[in-house]
């Protein structure tokens, strides 16, 4: 309903009219408001005027539109409750990044019908993202069959790293269940490798004037991706910074240092126990 129409309806019908999330253009940008128009009547019941109330929710709308694709509703609500937690302009912050990638999916997809490729990925991503949101992770992006997940942006918590590792363990457990179903359907299993790293990144809305995405960038992200690329089927590889934070809660195995692209020296790496076992 347009603003003029809302006012006219309130006056003609002598009833309060309300419109939620009404958008209109101002001189410089689009505004989003909640608007109500209530008639003022005299003792005879004749309308003498209108009381119009406008609530500017432009900033709230921007937050919802920016983050609803990336995080659970719980995280969005937390951002709206505390503006201090939100900085879209760009800032340095410490986060834990989780990468997961389906091994050999390109070759596997070449032997599948296009609709089967899409349905397989949709089923896989739906289950994985449900687990991510369960642990309040941020879905940074989907690239082909790879997921990039962030803990610590836009909201940070003391247990970011623990939740990232827990997410990875539960994802691998869910993949085992998926593969049981796929086996019954005579379909090839899905094998996934994962890498987790922690460190300082730059976070914020990055892109062009017409299209921007909230993301994190930096060497921390690159190393997380590299660990994922060297992880074997069903493996969860973590960096030393991650290991130091979760070693008391998870069973880890130290591996031989690995050489990764972009690093002069070999990188210390650990593997989470294959069964996802946690220490008691």
TrEMBL record:
CDD domains: CHD (cd07302). Gene3D superfamilies: Nucleotide cyclase (3.30.70.1230). GO terms for biological process: cAMP biosynthetic process; intracellular signal transduction. GO terms for molecular function: catalytic activity. The keyword Membrane applies. The keyword Transmembrane helix applies. It is found in: Cell envelope. InterPro entries: A/G_cyclase (IPR001054), Adenylyl/Guanylyl_Cyclase_3/4 (IPR050697), Nucleotide_cyclase (IPR029787). Coiled coil: none annotated. PANTHER family: ADENYLATE CYCLASE, TERMINAL-DIFFERENTIATION SPECIFIC (PTHR43081:SF1), ADENYLATE CYCLASE, TERMINAL-DIFFERENTIATION SPECIFIC-RELATED (PTHR43081). This is Guanylate cyclase domain-containing protein. It comes from marine metagenome. The lineage of its organism: unclassified sequences, metagenomes, ecological metagenomes.
